């Protein structure tokens, strides 16, 4: 009987911890949104005037999924910065187009978003290559892992896009014209975990 009570106690503790984690994660997610959203006003004027760093920060404040965030708005600002050769904006676009659109600390939400996020490995390849060429070590690591997983034909196609990257669709709705930030269907190409 003592063993049964210990087992029941352990199960109760696990259940309580799991339920509490959801509440804590919701609180953290809400706090994250509040912090990001409150910073937006600081960047809008400079971003609209063409300041690449302000555009990058404004894009980051909108990134990427969940209430109050918009992958589309994030990529609008990140694309503006990336087209001015902002290395971190290029990296973030590569990350987004790999399907890494969630930074929410809640494990359950990360799993759900990882399963439902769209990806375009060729577009990700282009942005990661540009950031890598400018010395971004995070981009270099992701690019190496992505290249290992991509079929040779996809790598060749991505190199073709790289040659004309400024003309390539950049904003989320341009890359995925059928959907929107609430329509995050799975990618047809499995990029695996390239973190």
Give structural attributes.
single chain; 195 residues; mainly alpha; Serine Threonine Protein Phosphatase 5, Tetratricopeptide repeat; 68% helix; 0% strand; disordered C terminus
Describe it.
By secondary structure, the protein is an all-alpha fold. It has a single domain (2-175), classed as Alpha Horseshoe (Serine Threonine Protein Phosphatase 5, Tetratricopeptide repeat), CATH 1.25.40. The chain is built from nine helices and no strands. The chain is globular and about 45 Å long. Residues 7-35 and 179-195 have low confidence and may be disordered.
CATH topology: Serine Threonine Protein Phosphatase 5, Tetratricopeptide repeat
Q: Percent range for helical residues?
A: 55-70%
CATH homologous group name? Tetratricopeptide repeat domain
The string of secondary-structure elements, in order, is HHHHHHHHH
**What is the end-to-end distance?**
46 Å
Number of strands: 0
What oligomeric assembly is this protein in?
A: single chain
- Count of discrete alpha- or pi-helical segments spanning 4 or more residues: 9
Q: Proportion of β residues?
A: under 5%
What is the average of the pLDDT values? 76
CATH class: Mainly Alpha
């Amino acid at each position: 009987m003592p063993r049964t009570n210990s087992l029941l106690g352990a199960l109760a503790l696990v259940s309580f911890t799991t339920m509490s984690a959801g509440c804590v994660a919701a609180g953290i997610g809400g706090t994250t949104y509040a912090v990001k959203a409150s910073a937006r006003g600081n960047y809008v004027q400079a971003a609209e005037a063409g300041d690449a760093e302000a555009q990058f920060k404004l894009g980051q404040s909108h990134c990427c999924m969940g209430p109050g965030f918009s992958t589309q708005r994030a990529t609008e600002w990140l694309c503006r910065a990336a087209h001015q050769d902002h290395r971190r904006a290029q990296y973030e676009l590569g990350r987004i187009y790999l399907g890494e659109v969630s930074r929410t600390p809640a494990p359950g939400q990360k799993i759900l978003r990882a399963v439902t996020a769209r990806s375009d490995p060729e577009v990700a390849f282009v942005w990661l290559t540009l950031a890598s060429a400018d010395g971004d070590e995070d981009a270099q690591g992701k690019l190496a892992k992505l290249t290992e997983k991509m079929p040779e034909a996809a790598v060749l196609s991505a190199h073709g896009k790289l040659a004309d990257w400024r003309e390539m669709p950049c904003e989320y709705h341009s890359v995925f014209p059928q959907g929107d930030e609430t329509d995050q269907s799975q990618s047809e190409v499995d990029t695996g975990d390239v973190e």
